[in-house]
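Case 174 in the screening queue. Each case pairs one protein sequence with one candidate compound; here the compound is zinc ion. For every case the pipeline is the same: read the inputs, emit a complex structure as tokens, and attach any notable structural observations.

Predict complex for case 174.
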Amino acid sequence: MLESGKNVKKENIIINIDRSTNNFNYYGEKVLKNTENKLLEERLQLKKKYEKCFKVISPFQKYPIPIFLNHKPKIVGWCLIYEDEKGLGTEGIVTNKKVKRRISQGRLKGFSITGIAKITQCSICNSKFTECNHIPGKVYNNKECVNKVIEADFVEASIVKEPVNPQCLINMEL
Ligand SMILES: [Zn+2]
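Case 174 output:
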């Protein structure tokens, strides 16, 4: 709390930051203090649901990887992820009718692939990104620093409303 009033000297003002509101759950929602156990339980449940999804075998031989909606463990389609000279690409089939409709209406248009970076490289000094002090987005000697992912482990693929990468859009053939 900030005390108000003209008699309060500057050095006497104490800003009390309430850290209880600084916790966020997996979906970015605020959580209250002392909910760590609940949070942990939620995470375990989520993990279990994902594990269940990954045990489902695709009905399409060509598309073995499940597609989720908004990074939540519910399968809405199947895809194949490949890499070519343009980067990562994907093709697949959306099996969920509601999701299909929302894509055709332009309400869902992005695709997002989650991976865990195993090897990354700094574009300035070429060392492992975790081992140097360069900051991505900053310019050093007219060269912008980029954190390049050399190798990553695939985690999941999702259809999303707004992709982090604006170039990652869905093309639907009806
Ligand atoms: Zn560096």
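Case 174 observations:
- Residues 1-6 have pLDDT under 50 and may be disordered.
- The pocket of zinc ion is lined by residues 122, 124-125, 127, 132, 134 (CB under 6 Å).
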